[in-house]
Amino acid sequence: MEHRRLIFAFNFITVLIFLLILSYSTAVEGSRPLTDRPFYTSLINGFTINQAYSGPSHRGRGH
Question: Hey, what's the signal peptide range on this chain (predicted)?
C-alpha cells in the first residue's frame, strides 16, 4: 500500500511541475512585443521575393 502512495505522489508532483512550466511558457509567449509591421505586409513582401526568384533566369544579359 505504501508503494502505491509513493507512485501516486510522484505522478502528482510530476504533473504539477509540468503544468507550472507550461503556464510559465505561455506567460513568456504572451509578453513578447508585437512586430511593427502588420502580418499582411510580410506576406506581400515574401510573395514579391518568391515571384522575383521564380521567373526564367537571364544569364548573360547586360554583359
Answer: 1-27
